[in-house]
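Researcher: Here's the sequence for the chain we discussed earlier.
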Amino acid sequence: MTVMEKLQAIPHENCLCGRRHPLLTKEALVVPDGPEALCGLLTKAPPKGKILVICDDIVYDILGKRSYEMLKEIAAAEILVLKSHNLHANEWSIGAAMMEISPETSFVAAVGTGTVNDIARYAAYSARIPYAIIGTSPSMDGFTSQASPLLKRNLKTTFNAIAPDYALLDLPVMQNSPKEMIAAGLGDILGKYIALCDWKLSNLVIGEYICPEIWNLMRETVDTIVAEVDNIPSRGGQAITNLGKGLLLSGAAMQMVNSTRPASGAEHLLSHFWEMRQNLRGGHTALHGDKVGVGTLFMLDYYKKFFEKQRDFKSVDIDKWIKDARAAFGAVAKEIFKVNNSDQPPPETIYENGVKHWDALKKESDLITSHREELAKYLQICGGPTTPAEIGVDKKDLRDALLYAQEIRPRFTITRLAYAWGVHQDIVEELLDEM
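Model: Thanks. This is the structure I predict for it:
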């Protein structure tokens, strides 16, 4: 089945979960020629004004220049080439993109991957015009999302944006991507095991909404990619195509529930924490998917440690916790605690619900933690990192992230369950002692 066929199989109206699942993206494909495919789609529904093409200086030579030259054959077009060195989706790069959007601009075409996609998406959203993405590397899952994770004053925050009209992944270019980019995409995909477990846990413990249809779609998607993971290093079989389709499906799943919940859990919070800390230092920032992959392995260890035994409830010194968390976040602490308001039940209720659903939660945990070593092996054979040191994270960065990354979002995850239980810090220290 194609990506769109799988998405159309989800009930958009009258789903058993009780919610609508609108899909705004008109086409999501892995294609043999991204620029040609986009031109074909836009010829059927031409933009009324100018097209702004956005890429970076690396992708310009690979596919950006060609995309621009083909698109200007069907409409007036301009191109913005961003400098790839230390490029982030932040107020500076988005400002640069928005300054290129004139009153005559009616469509934005991004050519690239995560950072360029987020810049183009938010700029198009701000200008209230549609956009498309031609993906050049299977390194992340945000192609079809309608949210943009942006750095604002060095704080990683997810902003509402728009979904692309068209998301087209160029297969030949993807297959020739550096192995590091492909490994990052795999890391982002493997993180869904934690994200989905966190989503189900949150549903059982605090009654958060969940859609079983979309949950199953995401689990099947990850399993399909894992089944052919041995072919990823050689780029053989359907491995890269399946990875690309999985990344498109992941973003669309977020779009259909209007939340990043199907694809992002505690493992992504670790990634966001490390990215913010590395940006504040002004140093090198590892690829998003690499950080997610390493974070996934640690959260698998965390899940296993939590469910090794049913621990007694303990109260938390909240004042000390907030003081320590603020110190860990440093310059962005004020913003973190301003945006992270939670209306979750009191700790005693969370503890009682956790005990009530213990067997079901442990069963779900065991299903993923039993494959921990296999997942680490998958990352390794694809050239991805599996240790904190490989992504520039020292033991203090690791400890602070494991303890405090949950404060970045009010999202309920395994660490918030353990925190309400009063055992979160104990588990973190136990994990660090065993390293």
